[in-house]
Write a structure and sequence with these properties.
By secondary structure, the protein is α/β, with parallel strands linked by helices. The protein folds into three domains: 49 residues, 434 Repressor (Amino-terminal Domain) (Orthogonal Bundle), CATH 1.10.260; 126 residues, Rossmann fold, CATH 3.40.50; 129 residues, Response regulator (Rossmann fold, 3-Layer(aba) Sandwich), CATH 3.40.50.2300. The chain contains eleven helices and twelve strands. The chain has a six-stranded parallel beta sheet, sandwiched between helices. Strands 7-6-8-9-10-12 form a six-stranded mixed beta sheet, sandwiched between helices. The model has no long low-confidence stretch (mean pLDDT 88).
């Protein structure tokens, strides 16, 4: 049977109030008393009740995470990293699958306001003003997202624009000029930044690319498949396609395989995220530093909570360009 705080007090020959102070406010207890009580606690492997501690300290050590798409392998890996890091810092992480639905997000905001949630991490999504409904004492971190609210927050992001520009320039150096682009949802921050990176290189090299070479996707696998069907319907086919995430690239790759289109011999392909489980060959992609994103987010949020300091700050994490087997160099005049 597990020991109670009263048992620890008896074994230490002190009051229960003294044991409580040793656990929650050790600076208020003499060194000799603190050492005596801690020896008993360690000897009997006593674990204080987290719930009881939260009532005493008025701190729940509970965080919430708003997830855009829990089925996306990028977010699955991010959840795993964030949860482990929160646990290692003695915090509990609640996962809120918002599905980028405004009403669903508002329901979760109401839940957070009604419970002792100390900090909130939000992944990408469409910015709305309902985040102004959050309690004023809420500490916020946004991963790849801008908020339309008055609360200050830490924004953690991959260098999306620069990373995509590097990937498109890689294709240019492989002699590709007809480069198509599959975007994510039009109002999502990462989608906007990645499209800007694509357009930067199109403009830089004055490539013969019009609006018909940009397909509006939704970050889901099926839209990658539909994107390929769309590009195949054009009078001038692209020689290379950049997909704004790996899921869409996988969908496009699967559709190409079903149509007997050889990638990369007939079409070059690049994705974004670095989480692909490609069907038959490694995908050339931009790998996001998921560990670095999670570490920066958790450490930043807990530092704000424990330091009682808020402020608008941006932390940018570099992506890594990984060359797989889905791109090839065109011969001069081949395109």
């Amino acid at each position: 049977m597990a020991l109670t705080i009263s048992d620890i007090a008896k074994l230490s020959d002190v009051s229960t109030a003294t044991v409580s102070r040793v656990i929650n406010s050790p600076e208020k207890v003499s060194e000799s008393t603190r050492k005596k009580v801690m020896e008993v606690i360690k000897k009997h492997n006593y674990q204080p009740s987290g719930l009881a501690q939260s009532f005493r300290t008025k701190k729940s050590k509970t965080l919430a995470l708003f997830i855009y798409d829990i089925d996306n392998p990028f977010y699955a890996k991010l959840i795993k990293e964030l949860n482990k890091m929160a646990f290692d810092r003695d915090y509990t992480l609640i996962i809120c699958d918002t599905e980028n639905n405004k009403d669903r997000e508002l329901e979760y905001i109401n839940y957070i306001n009604q419970n002792k949630i100390e900090g909130l991490i939000m992944t990408e999504g469409i910015s709305t003003d309902h985040f102004n409904k959050l309690n004023n004492n809420m500490y916020l971190v946004c991963i790849d997202r801008d908020l339309d609210c008055e609360l200050p927050y830490l924004r953690v992001t991959t260098n999306n624009r620069e990373s995509v520009a590097k990937a498109i320039e890689y294709l240019v150096n492989l002699n590709h000029r007809k480069i198509a682009f599959v975007s994510g949802p039009k109002d999502v921050k990462t989608s906007i930044e990645r499209k800007k990176g694509y357009l930067d290189i199109i403009k830089k090299y004055e490539l013969p690319v019009g609006d018909d070479y940009i397909y509006q996707g939704d970050f889901k696998r099926e839209s990658g498949s539909k994107a390929l069907d769309y590009f195949l319907s054009l009078s001038e086919l692209p020689s290379a396609i950049f997909c704004s995430n790996d899921l869409m690239a996988e969908g496009l790759l699967a559709r190409a395989l079903s149509l007997n289109i050889d990638i990369p011999n007939e079409l070059s392909l690049i994705g974004f995220d670095g989480v692909s489980k490609a069907l038959y060959k490694p995908l050339t992609t931009i790998k996001q530093d998921i560990h670095g994103i999670a570490e920066t987010s958790i450490n930043g949020l807990i530092s704000m909570i424990e330091g009682g300091v808020k402020g608008n700050t941006v932390k940018e994490i570099s992506g890594e360009f990984l060359i797989g087997e889905t791109c090839r160099r065109l011969k001069s005049g081949e395109e």
